[in-house]
Inverse folding.
């Protein structure tokens, strides 16, 4: 795991976008795993800027989103389908038929989860998975005690996650209880993982995930087993880490061939 501490969310997001842009330029048919929420917004803005100003080409890229609320259709303002259209897809030249999001309206949820997994496999697997982190340590919507080997499936949100996400809904009661999420096993098969976390309210979860024991109580801690995981955070989010000096030293002394930007 590599922990990269930047002075701001903006700087960390630009760095993450540079890493993804480099992947797309070297492999135009790259397969990206994407996240929603407030964390990746500046990252998406930078990808859009690169598309407009630096001709970053998404025409052969395939994407798979991590999750969707059960019961929210594509037109619902809080659906992740809508989020992705508004915050990324409408602004780049991605082919809509290559941008996949779990189907929150599926009549047969288990069958649609199996199909999602098969689609990822058929696309050749995820080259990189973008992740945020929940204040309870979740990745995707794999809440604490999720199986570390889980695949795409239905999950029940914790009351804390429902409360964290209430800001996207007219009233807290409207936040669905159920979601479809890629599993932890699915995420772990991505060839690279980029987790971003910003702000003091993520500091405890990040400290537990990065420096605590690997445990299903903190799903993000499983990334300690990933051979190529980068964690990009800002100062505030690094507040509870013990080894920040070493993380900075590593980043500032990388061999040129290993530098991320
Ligand atoms: C979103 C997702 C979640 C969020 C997490 C953090 O697709 O899978 O794991 O990344 O809940 O949310 P924000 O970024 O809103 O703090």
């Amino acid at each position: 795991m590599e922990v990269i501490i930047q002075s701001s969310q903006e700087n960390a997001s630009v760095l993450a976008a540079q890493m993804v842009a480099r992947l797309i330029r070297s492999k135009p048919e790259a397969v990206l795993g994407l996240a929603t929420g407030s964390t990746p917004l500046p990252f998406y803005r930078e990808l859009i800027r690169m598309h407009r100003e630096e001709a970053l080409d998404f025409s052969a890229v395939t994407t798979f989103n991590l999750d969707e609320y059960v019961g929210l259709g594509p037109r619902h303002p809080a659906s992740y389908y809508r989020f992705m259209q508004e915050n990324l897809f409408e602004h780049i030249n991605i082919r809509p038929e290559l941008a996949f999001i779990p189907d929150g309206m599926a009549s047969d949820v288990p069958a649609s989860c199996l199909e999602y997994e098969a689609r990822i496999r058929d696309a050749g697997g995820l080259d990189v998975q973008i992740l945020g982190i929940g204040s309870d340590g979740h990745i995707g919507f794999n809440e604490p005690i999720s199986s570390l080997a889980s695949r795409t499936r239905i999950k029940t949100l914790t009351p804390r996650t429902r409360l964290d996400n209430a800001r996207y809904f007219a009233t807290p009661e409207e936040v669905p209880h159920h979601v479809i999420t890629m599993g932890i096993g699915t995420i772990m098969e991505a060839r690279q993982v980029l987790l971003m976390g910003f702000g003091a309210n993520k500091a405890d979860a990040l400290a537990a995930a990065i420096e605590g024991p690997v445990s299903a109580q903190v799903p993000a801690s499983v990334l300690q087993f990933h051979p190529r995981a980068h964690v990009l955070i800002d100062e505030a989010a690094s507040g509870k880490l013990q080894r920040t000096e070493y993380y900075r030293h590593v980043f500032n002394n990388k061999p040129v061939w290993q530098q991320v930007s």
User: Anything to note?
Assistant: Residues 35-39, 66-67, 132-134, 138-141 surround fructose -6-phosphate (CB under 6 Å). The first strand starts at residue 2 and ends at 6. Helices lie at 9-26, 41-54, 80-87, 109-122, 159-164, 184-188, 203-211, 244-252.
